[in-house]
Amino acid sequence: MTVSATTYGPLKCHEVEPTGETTESVVVLCHGYGAPGTDLVPLARELRAIDPRSSPGVRFVFPQAPLTLESLGLPDGRAWWHLDVAAINESIARGELRDLRGDFPEGAVAAREQLLETIAAVAEQVQLPLSRFVLGGFSQGAMVAADVALRLDECPAGLCVFSGTLVAAEEWSQLAAERGPMPVVQSHGRFDPILPYDGAIWLRDAFQDAGLSVDFLEFDGVHTIPYEALERLAALVAGVE
């Protein structure tokens, strides 16, 4: 598997090209807070191995979040928006439920705009409609991917939300109701201390109530991506028509 570094729109990306001659669909996966831009790149190999039906025509694009965390001692760490890590750790220590259903986090709108520009640049490069794009990500990356998927001019082929949560509940619910049929693969650990399981249930219910088709996987684990979630994403990608 050959991984190349490139830039689409405002964001640096890592890209895994199709094994066939042409690009027939695109999978865009966004990493989580604190991870390097390459964090999810190995998933391309895993997804191809799980369901090889779509492998020859799938292009994988892994955008790098725009903000550096070098000042926090993470020279390779990136973020879509900054977090108050100390406050989050205190909440976890106290066993408090973090409810993010209010407004968008500060910086999330800027992240959304940059990812929208990046996806538009990819679509122009490969000359494919957005209906052949699958968007997704992990944790903070899943949140920005979901926000973008709800706002694209054309409904994407699907969305995957690995260990994400519901933010801006009122706005997301309205956008989801206007989005039309969009399949969603969502997974979340019942014992996730970072983004609690309750937040995943709120997100699932909001999407389902809005008419989206949500394939929800709960698992006995923490803040991670289980193999079964990759199997479900691979099936979604293979079904892009």
Can you describe what's shown?
It is a single chain. This protein has 241 residues and is α/β, with parallel strands linked by helices. It has one domain: Alpha/Beta hydrolase fold, catalytic domain (Rossmann fold). The protein has helices spanning 42-50, 85-94, 108-126, 140-149, 169-179, 197-209, 227-238, and strands at 3-8, 11-16, 25-30, 58-63, 67-69, 74-79, 133-138, 158-162, 183-189, 213-219. The strands form two sheets. It has an eight-stranded mixed β-sheet, with helices on both faces. Helix 5 packs across helix 6. The mean pLDDT is 93.
Provide the gyration radius in Å.
17 Å
Give the averaged pLDDT, no decimals.
Answer: 93
- The number of helical segments is 7
The H/E string reads EEEHEEEHHEHEHEHEH
CATH classification, class level? Alpha Beta
Determine the CATH topology.
Rossmann fold
Name of the CATH architecture: 3-Layer(aba) Sandwich
Summarize the structure.
With 241 residues, the protein is an alpha/beta fold.
Features of the shown structure:
single chain, alpha/beta, Rossmann fold, 8-stranded mixed β-sheet, two-stranded antiparallel sheet, 10 strands, 35% helix
Question: How do the helices and strands line up, and which of them pair or pack?
Answer:
Elements: E1 3-8, E2 11-16, E3 25-30, H1 42-50, E4 58-63, E5 67-69, E6 74-79, H2 85-94, H3 108-126, E7 133-138, H4 140-149, E8 158-162, H5 169-179, E9 183-189, H6 197-209, E10 213-219, H7 227-238
Parallel strand pairs: 3-4, 3-7, 7-8, 8-9, 9-10
Antiparallel strand pairs: 1-2, 2-4, 5-6
